[in-house]
Design brief:
binds ligand DP6, two-stranded antiparallel ribbon, 12-stranded mixed sheet, 9 helices, alpha+beta, single chain, 39% helix, Ribosomal Protein S5, domain 2
Length: 325
């Protein structure tokens, strides 16, 4: 009645932005990501007859109500399937700075899906765990798997939608150098921001229409290990996603001066012949995706860029690991 799971953050190269079904949390567009090591969340779920309600502790502190609600929804789902009513104590730890803006919700809900299922005695496949993590947070569906991972767009009503691995972690030794460009919490979370984009951005329709072509091309470049083809496509995906948000009312503008400076550093290094390109998620930090050979120069150049407060480096890592007991 106790299990611990470890899952890693992921970085989307083809971005998920927008939902086709809010209730089932289905993405309107396909996305492709790299699972990142050592950006790990470790979560333990223990059923406890002595509890009146679920308890969720995150990084040593009681979690906020909104977070606990999303955790409880996932626990309720597995309890119903296993025919169990016992409440659970959930303890979760991010082994990387949450300030790095590397969606800890992705690793967090992937680890929770794995630990909750094992704690109640279910023997779910990775696809079932991925679909369950997706309902909690769509990017979490990808963190169930290691390496290069695709989450297809969801057809409204298709609650089985899961991510799938398309290449193993050792397929290509890519690195991700994160340039941290602000401290403190971001202005608006991805869920609310992508909702605003759908409601009010005139570019939303074009974004959804273009996503299948763009994602296919990114997958092809990844599978062929073709950095020259990959770089402009990855930058187009994040720039289009941010343009959609910026053009909404209210406008969602995550960028800080350091974000622009970091993008210019990365594009300058690429013009000088290095295999590196930029991406950003729903926050001000810039992530440089590069080959292992380019990583030391990329990190050095980003650390010396105005407005970059800190850097950290990750490599491609494995998927979910679950231990019972
Ligand atoms: C910008 O997975 O956090 O990181 O499904 O509403 O929980 P919800 O959204 P979430 O969105 C992630 C958006 C992104 C791009 C990506 O990871 O693909």
């Amino acid at each position: 009645m106790k299990a611990t799971a470890v899952a890693r953050a992921n970085i989307a190269l083809a971005k998920y932005w927008g939902k086709s079904d809010d209730a089932l949390n289905l993405p309107a567009v396909p996305s492709v990501s790299l699972t990142l090591d050592p950006l790990v969340t470790e979560t333990t779920v223990e059923l406890d007859e002595g509890l009146d309600d679920d308890v969720f502790e995150l990084d040593g502190q009681p979690a906020k109500d909104g977070e606990t609600k999303r955790v409880r929804a996932l626990l309720d789902e597995v309890r119903a399937l296993a025919g169990v009513t016992t409440r659970a104590r959930v303890t979760s730890r991010n082994r990387f700075p949450t300030a790095a803006g590397l969606a800890s919700s992705a690793s967090g809900f992937a680890a929770l899906a794995g630990a909750a299922s094992a704690a109640v005695g279910l023997d779910d496949s990775a696809a079932v765990l991925s679909a369950r993590a997706r309902r909690a947070s769509a990017s979490a569906a990808r963190s169930i798997f290691g390496g290069v991972v695709e989450l297809p767009a969801g057809v409204p009503g298709d609650d089985a939608l899961a991510a799938r691995p398309i290449a193993a972690a050792d397929h290509w030794d890519l690195r991700v150098v994160v340039a941290i460009t602000a401290s403190g919490r971001k202005s608006i979370g991805s869920r609310d921001a992508m909702g605003e984009s759908r409601r009010s951005s005139p570019y939303y329709g074009a974004w959804v229409e273009h996503a299948a072509t763009s994602t296919r091309a990114i997958c092809d470049a990844l599978l062929a290990r073709d950095f020259a083809a990959l770089a402009p496509l990855v930058e187009q995906s994040f720039l289009a996603m941010h343009a959609v948000g910026m053009a909404g009312i209210p406008s969602v503008l995550y960028w800080q001066p350091g974000s622009v400076a970091a993008i210019r550093t990365i594009q300058g290094l690429r013009a000088d012949g290095l295999d590196v390109c930029a991406t950003m998620d729903a926050g001000p930090h810039v992530k440089a995706v590069c080959t292992a050979a380019a990583a030391p120069s990329v990190r050095e150049a980003l650390a010396a860029t105005d407005g970059v407060l800190d850097t950290l480096e990750a490599r491609i890592g494995p998927g979910l690991e679950v231990t019972r007991g």
